[in-house]
Write a structure and sequence with these properties.
By secondary structure, the protein is of the alpha/beta class. The protein has a five-stranded mixed β-sheet with strand order 2-1-3-4-5, with helices on one face. The radius of gyration is 52 Å and the shape is flat.
Amino acid sequence: MSTPRRCLAITAAVGLLAAACGGSSGGTTAATTTTVPPTTAATTTLPPTTTTSTTTTTTTTVPPTTTTTTTTTLPPQVQGWEGPGPTEIAVDLSFDIAGPDADLLDLVEGALEAMGLAVIDGADTVLALDLRGDAKGASYGDAGYCYTGARVRGDMTLSAPDRPVLEVSIDGDEPTSFVVFSSVCADHRDPEDAPFPKAFEPEFMEGIVEWWGPASVPYLVEIMDDELYVIGIRTRAVQAVRSMEWEAIPEEMQYEFLAAAVDYCGRSTHITDDRDYDRFREAVARLFAEALDIDVSLDGTEMIGLARFRLETRYGK
């Protein structure tokens, strides 16, 4: 490197000059200054160390777990038969008066279908009804003579292969009306116009309840809900439910029947001084006492309000 040499030459020249200008006597002292070049530290600059942490995220898409709940509804069991009851049933109905037989057949099939049974011709299980009818009439002054009462008698049997035959007797009576409107009388001039379904259904209902027990409650709910049913059969429906073991009735049907009873009570509070409605309310009050712990001594409005509250809190509806 050239820089150190230049520093040495300059120092020598300065020393000669100092001697010429008269340095100190007694000789010449040559001062030699050695300039050591600055130590150069070799710095090795390393590239910055970059640590790259690669995070690998593996996303595994798991298909959603599908929980399949299979609800197997067992066919309603017939009291007196071992094992599950039928799912299909045929109806064989005979009636000795032409015309009303179609109405009776519709009534029977509707009840069975409400219970979840399929009515199919040729099914192994057969509900047979052999019925006879009597039309009952009376004279209503200017309105004339008309048939406002009826009686239906006969037998109802339930049979299936390898099962014992079950049988109940039918003897239903609908008294003649005490008073009728002229328009009603006009619609009941002939014997086939008599109210045979009204005479028949209470007896038929009791036979169905005897055979199917708690499984018949959906049919009883329809009786309670339908505006066309008279108060007498509603009372018998309530009595039929009370005759069953309450816990044996499916919870959904408990609620449906109680709700229908509460609703009808609410719709009929305006009817007073009527023995038929008094009997109905008494039957309902006893049902509410047993099923909802309601005091039977409560008046109608208070009983209905408390029953609605208990239904909501007990069944969550």
